[in-house]
């Protein structure tokens, strides 16, 4: 294995990269040769700090990922000071893009007491600086599931402020326009307002370049209607920027059939969505894994790459039948979408900034974004929009009515996601 990655690294230095850079145009992703890009992705976080530093591990995983048919990974935590060259090159050669979260364990924007200051800015920027040089970086996230209940909605302007400042950093440094976006928890009462809020106001310098949703509402057997995806689609129609699933999965009752992929890449959704990231590569206590590196070990066991009851490195062994189910599913899916040359980006919708409601969305219209270093004072002042129309305030949105067939699924799904996150924290903090 060592020889193979060394050989790959040497070859990589002498030859061109395997993947084309990707940018967002209108509400789609396009490669530099003008082909639409759809993510067939996997969440990848084997170890707490950074799964992109162990080249032998990246190589073993990339080989198996190629057989699965994945073209992108989401990584939640990286160490900007580490050397990622070899892993990034291994994934590049495997045709795999990376979506990287810019926040770290000590720089999250916190929902109950939001702030956005120079320390956070500089730490986020460090991650961007470390990864921008790789052609196979697909996107950056400024946050993950910061908002999960109505009182958290007052943190939304902080998400937008982080986005504004990371895009300004990208511009100031002359970096290529790697899309900067946000990964939202799927909360039925807040989702429509949040996705509109992050794209409203008419000033592209402050809006997300893409919006992503972590959804656990499709539990096989299910369909487009019963899963609630029909409601997600309604709010994503002709969205202003690319929209995709940054986590999908439901392992109840199991095994996973991944029929959600048929919907995401099928006629109902394909024109509006840019694919999905399946949660997740490694089998661990939350039981979403596609592969494992060995049987569970006692929760208390420690050692190199052993934590939280699981071994986190080695030879990946497919979890059966889930891995094969996804592989078979993805083999039937190869969307082409629209060519950039035939695409009119001006036709996308614009969204109005939602009005606040008493116990729901708490940010009224297009508010002045916090400046760097500003802590939340309890209210926001509404400002006129850059374009006029974007500053309009929308009537209160319908709440849970978009998912009448499965009112509890989103709750169940959300708790699956939150349990995953909580387990993650329990193990790592
Ligand atoms: C940002 O806030 C954090 C948490 O309160 C604090 O530790 C840090 O010193 C602050 N940074 C600056 C530049 O004020
Ligand atoms: C758009 O936002 C940027 C960043 O906040 C700001 O510098 C610029 O003045 C805004 N443009 C308009 C027309 O308001």
Automatic annotation (TrEMBL):
Pfam family, one: Glyco_hydro_72
Membrane topology: Lipid-anchor; GPI-anchor
Enzyme category, top tier: transferase
GO cellular component: plasma membrane; side of membrane
Sequence segments annotated as region (Disordered): 383-406
InterPro entries for the chain: GH, Glucanosyltransferase
Signal sequence segment: 1-18
Keyword Lipoprotein (UniProt): yes
This enzyme's EC code(s): 2.4.1.-
Xref: Gene3D superfamilies: Glycosidases (3.20.20.80)
Subcellular location: Cell membrane
Superkingdom assignment: Eukaryota
Keyword set, alphabetical order: Glycoprotein, GPI-anchor, Lipoprotein, Membrane, Signal, Transferase
GO-annotated molecular function: 1,3-beta-glucanosyltransferase activity
GO terms, biological process: fungal-type cell wall (1->3)-beta-D-glucan biosynthetic process; fungal-type cell wall organization
Function recorded in the entry: Splits internally a 1,3-beta-glucan molecule and transfers the newly generated reducing end (the donor) to the non-reducing end of another 1,3-beta-glucan molecule (the acceptor) forming a 1,3-beta linkage, resulting in the elongation of 1,3-beta-glucan chains in the cell wall.
Family: Belongs to the glycosyl hydrolase 72 family.
Protein name: 1,3-beta-glucanosyltransferase
